[in-house]
Amino acid sequence: MAERMGFFTDTSICIGCKACEVACKEWNQLPDDGFLFQATSYDNTVALGASTWRHVAFIEQQPVWTPEGETGDPLRIGPDGRWLMSSDVCKHCTHAGCLDVCPTGALFRTEFDTVVVQPDICNGCGYCVPACPFGVIDRREDDGRAWKCTMCYDRQRGGLEPACAKACPTDSIQFGPLDELRERAAGRVAALHAEGRTEARLYGESPGDGVGGMGAFFLLLDEPEVYGLPPDPVVPTRDLPAMWRWAGAAALTMVGAVAVSFLGAAVGSGGGSGRSAGSSGSRAFEQVRGVRGVLVRGVRRFGGFGGSPPAGWLPMRRFQGRGR
Amino acid sequence: MTRRSRERATTSGTPSGTVSGVGTVSVAGTVSGVAGTVGGMVSGTGPETVPEAEFRSYYGHPVIKRPIWHVPHMPLYLYLGGLSGASSLTAVLAGLTGRHRLARAARITAALGASTGSAFLIAELGRPARFLNMLRVFKPTSPMSVGSWILAAQGGLSAAAAVSDVTGILPAVGDAAALATVVTGPLTATYTAVLVADTAVPAWHAGYRELPFLFAGSALASAGAAGMLATPRAEAGPARAVALLGAAVETAAATLLEQRLGLVGEPYRQGRAGLLLRAARALTAGGGLLTLLAGRSRVATAASGLALTAGALCTRFGVLEAGRASAADPKYTVVPQRERVETAGPASVPGR
To answer: Is residue A324 part of a domain?
Structure first.
């Protein structure tokens, strides 16, 4: 197994040129994503998707006016306002929701510890789409399969860095062994803090977070949700054992409810008028009916509950003539 | 600061934050007053069952992708899978108690439910021709993989049980298959709750305790209703009891789901999902109560069976709709996570 490779996206030096978006589209031959005009900012791509594997977020912030009539700046935006730009990408999580839930094995973990969809296996079930806590992977509707960033698996196998990192003119996108990137990122945050830019923080670098650390992590200058990232993502499968326990309890409840329904009817119906002309009863079933007769007698002693008598269902001959 | 931004800020600084228009900070008013074009997002406004949650986002765009499962395929499958699973149980108990007409009707219902449900599932795939890839692996971490195997077993067993019963061929094999559905049936009806809960969709994930019971109740009500409608009244007593118990479980679980989850449960109470689930509750409760009269009247049987079926369908469509609404609004993703970070510290994945 090769070393775990990753991306460190330092948004403090992103200039929003979108070379990464273009390089990604070119290399991976991705279709267009709609040529939409959002009219909210210089970002018209909006989000990552099946055909958008790098997405540059653009956020324009103005200083804040507090109700007290003072100009406050709790978000440290600065007097002139600021632009935040950030190139988002698949996080290649340690505990990847998409990979966990994929029922076909189309999603797999590569020798670089990245998460990749095999297009020849994916049958487009769509489960990975809502399973991703970041909203990264999506199904291409005209194609029917799920697609997302592969961290340029093909280029990596050929010893090249991913197209986006290669194209980034400011080295905002850095590619390399994840351990090295984490060290470099810690140094960068320390340097920014030393310059007084205490709003700088890392996102996704900790192996202890809800997805076990991200293979692609970020240096951000504001809260993650401002960039469209979840503030505290958790892989949905973390709670899977508990989910199955509750489902098991519900399944047992079903069995119990149906059993009670039949026992109740048996008790309520009393003797009945004898056995119906049974045809499908095999030997095994006949034996179980004997057990049922004992149960019925027991429950009837406690009163049972009402119901209309079914026409001749009672199979036990020795009960005949003993009815109400 | 320009006059414009001051006005904006003043607007969004109002305590309840009804229409902030532009960005607002503060979860439940903890950092109120901080507003501006930050992130340029719009805070949601809805009926005030829960205090207005203020939060930041990227221009109000959703954080997660909404489930892409289609209507009517996915909710119809949920209904049919439940119907099949609970009908299998009914068939077994009816067989054991010598109610052959109920047993036969339930066996046929179980087989039809599983097979048509599977057809809807396959049609739902982006690449239907590759549906067998589902059985390429068995993956315990994927409820859909586990569910595919459960459904395959349930489909095969229920079909064998029904065909044997109708044709009279190999009755022992048919009975053995029917007995085996005691395991696969309830799992078919409840695994779907794990399927939807094991996603990042907040309303689904947070409901992982209630959803299995909602689906179990709905399945029992569906199967009870089908049994009542397909069997002579004299023999359908247990089917009515199944329907009644199912309606009670479904109603109780839906009530818990809507009430217990707080902000994250809002999509179950509002909009289209709220409408569907309210309709489901009325139909299920009405149909459930009618089962008490259904033993005496054909009309009451028909009304009860149809109301319960419609209620179960509304439940399934409502749950999908709530999931979609929950994914579409970043509020449901951001606010609970932000609260968690600020009160309990960031999440982790223990033991993995």
So the answer is: no
Do B37 and B183 lie in one domain? The reply is: no
- Indicate whether B20 and B85 sit together in one domain: no
Residue A284 forms contact with B (CB below 8 Å): yes
Domain match, B52 and B90 both: no
CA A87, CA A10: separation in Å to the nearest integer?
9
Q: Does residue B137 share a domain with residue B81?
A: yes
Work out the mean pLDDT of chain A and round it to a whole number.
Answer: 85
Query: What confidence tens digit (pLDDT) does each residue in B295-344 have?
Result: 999 999 999 999 999 999 999 999 999 999 999 999 999 999 999 999 98
Q: Which pTM was predicted?
A: 0.85
DSSP letters of A268-299? HHTTTT------S--HHHHHHHHHHHHHHHHH
Tokens of B17: 């934050």
**ipTM of this predicted structure:** 0.87
* Residue contact B96–A123, C-beta within 8 A: no
User: Best mutation site among B58, B181, B209 for testing chain A: the one with the most A CBs within 10 Å?
Assistant: B58
Task: Grade residue A66 by pLDDT with cuts at 50, 70 and 90.
Answer: low
Q: Return phi, psi of residue B181, to 5°.
A: -70, -10
The string of pLDDT tens digits covering residues A113-165 is 999 999 999 999 999 999 999 999 999 999 999 999 999 999 999 999 999 99
Pair A96, A214 in one domain: yes
Q: Are A255 and A220 part of one and the same domain? A: no
- Please name the helix (run of DSSP H) or strand (run of DSSP E) that holds residue A203, with its range, or none: strand A201-203
**pLDDT band with cut points at 50, 70 and 90 for residue B260:** very high
Contact (CB, 8 A) for B85 and B77: no
Is the domain of A162 the same as that of A257? Answer: no
Per-residue exposure over B2-36, b if at least 16 CB sit within 10 Å of its own CB, e if not: eeebeebbebbbeeebeebebbbbbbbeebbbbbb
Check if the beta carbon of residue A152 is closer than 8 Å to that of residue A160.
yes
Facing A292 at nearest CB: one of B36, B97, B124? B97
> Hey, is the C-beta of A278 within 8 angstroms of any chain B C-beta?
yes
Residue B2: inside a domain, yes or no? no
Q: Which residue has the higher pLDDT, B21 or B85?
A: B85
State both tokens at B46.
């809805």
Q: Is A44 exposed, middle or buried (0-12, 13-18, 19+ CB in 10 A)?
A: middle
Compute the C-alpha angle A47/B72/A243, nearest 5°. Answer: 70
Domain count, chain A: 2
Inter-chain CB proximity B56 and A268 less than 8 Å? no
Contact (CB<8Å) A232/B333: no
The parent domain of residue A35 ranges over 5-234
In a domain, A140, yes or no: yes
Q: What value does the mean pLDDT take over residues A1-29?
A: 95
